[in-house]
Design a protein that fits this description.
This protein is mostly helical. It is about 65% helix and about 0% strand. The chain has helices at about 40, 50-85, 90-95, 95-105, 130-140, 145-170, 175-185, 200-215, 220-230, 235-255, 270-280, 285-295, 300-310, 320-325, 330-350, 355-370, 380, 390-400, 405-425, and strands spanning about 110-115, 120. The radius of gyration is 22 Å and the shape is globular. It starts with about 35 loop residues before the first helix and ends in a 6-residue tail after the last helix. Residues about 1-30, about 30-45 and about 260-265 have low confidence and may be disordered.
Length: about 425
């Protein structure tokens, strides 16, 4: 599939903007994913091993660089914690959200904390996939629940880097894919990728779901969305990406056939039937947990009430604006500049015509992260799964004349990220 696949349509596209009418085989377009060639599928499971090995060899540099920058972050933090006389494993697996996940893994749901100010924090705010994995791994290995959480996070980090590389390489070439995975590893709050949190697990599922859409594997994309929906509430962004892309494809197909929505529509091609099945499958994980909370608490909107108890209700950005207004003017100016940079990255992604599912996913993650009323310090972490925002800088770095320049920039960013991560993890506030 070319770099233009799944990109929004333009007035002068280089390829046809809609599939050709049936029964002729359609050409790929800006929105239509390319299904695997029939010849490849004919080999069945026997070809899975060689194909997977080839994919791994292609991604090996990206995985190696990602592992190196995360190892640097852990090393710097380990040294800083040792100098401070603190246990390095404590902040990684024994503080903040990781404690809630481990408590759920050990005892199930039902724990509630009442803070001195009277606010109530039930554990139903946390989704079940990570605790389930922690419980299962600790049951069959010598690892503690905290160790199992770290194993999941670190393994998922590598899978996420692989998926991010796969998306970047498909859209902009292999060199850009490698740099994209490295940039995700040196993101300012990338230290969370080394903690027993859900960010790496969710990003891995999201990246591979987007890759599945880009390659026309809608059922696989839907199944990955189910797992993402059991991991984090921001799976809503991934579900929206699939739904909007499918709706756009269907509209284009019906316009091509002269069926403008109303009236009788002919039978859909098999590829569109698979697409609709994947879209229908996608929200089931997220909905299942919302229904679980509703049944457990005896109210249809119980999940949203739980989030409101944690202060994570949607307020349209009022809390963010209030937080900025309460800062000293230098800090407020710096934060506004950071938000301006974020908006510029989003505009670049739109201007560079990223594929529709990739663009919708990234923008939705950013919007969800900014319009909530939750703790401000967590917002950069909540936006970390929006890796497509890093595609423009990744392409720019990959385009430098020499590999040495690219490596030098990534080295500086890795050192800065490691230092910031050590400082944050040894602090008092939650990341």
């Amino acid at each position: 599939m070319s770099d233009h696949q799944l990109r929004p349509r333009t007035p002068t596209p280089p390829a046809p903007t809609h599939p050709a009418p049936e029964p002729a085989a359609p050409k790929p377009t800006a929105l239509t994913p390319t299904a695997p060639a029939p010849g490849r599928r004919a080999s069945g499971l026997r070809a899975l091993g060689p194909r997977a090995a080839a994919a791994f060899r292609s991604a090996a540099p990206a995985l190696g660089i990602y592992a190196a920058v995360r190892a640097l972050g852990l090393l710097v933090f380990w040294v800083a914690a040792s100098v401070a006389g603190k246990n390095p494993l404590g902040p990684l697996s024994g503080r903040w959200d990781s404690v809630w996940y481990q408590r759920i893994a050990e005892n199930g749901y039902g724990y509630t904390v009442t803070l001195p100010n009277g606010s109530v924090h039930p554990d139903l705010a946390f989704f079940p996939l990570l605790p389930a994995l922690e419980r299962g791994i600790s049951a069959v290995t010598p690892l503690t629940l905290g160790g199992a959480g770290l194993l999941v996070a670190w393994t998922a980090g590598l899978l996420a880097a692989w998926g991010i590389y796969a998306v970047g390489a498909r859209l902009r070439g292999r060199r850009t894919g490698i740099v994209l995975a490295a940039l995700w590893g040196v993101y300012p709050t990338a230290f969370v990728q080394s903690m027993a949190y859900t960010e790496t697990l969710f990003t891995a599922l999201a990246a591979w779901a987007l890759y599945a859409v880009l390659t026309g594997r809608w059922i696989a994309a839907g199944a990955l969305c189910v797992l993402a929906g059991l991991t984090r509430p921001t799976a809503a962004a991934l579900i929206a990406a699939l739904a909007i892309t499918a709706a756009t494809l269907l509209r284009g197909y019906r316009e091509q056939r002269g069926e403008p929505g109303a009236g009788r529509a002919g039978p859909l091609p098999r590829r569109h039937a698979r697409m609709l099945a994947g879209v229908a499958l996608a929200p089931l994980g997220w909905l299942a947990y919302v229904v679980f909370v509703a049944v457990r608490e005896g109210g249809p909107f119980a999940y949203f009430e739980v989030q409101a108890q944690w202060g994570n209700n949607i307020d349209g950005g009022v809390a963010l604006a209030t937080f900025i207004a309460g800062l000293p003017w230098p800090a407020a100016l710096g934060l506004c500049a950071a938000l301006g940079l974020l908006g510029w990255l989003v505009a670049l992604c739109v201007r560079q015509r990223q594929p529709l599912p990739v663009l919708v996913y990234a923008v939705a993650i950013v919007v969800i992260s900014l319009i909530g009323a939750g703790y401000f310090g967590s917002r950069p972490r909540l936006m970390m799964p929006a890796f497509p925002l890093l595609l423009p800088p990744a392409a720019a770095l990959a385009g430098l004349r020499t590999t040495g320049r690219t490596a030098a920039v990534l080295t500086v960013l890795a050192c800065a990220s490691a230092a910031y991560g050590a400082w944050t993890l040894l602090g008092a506030g939650p990341p």
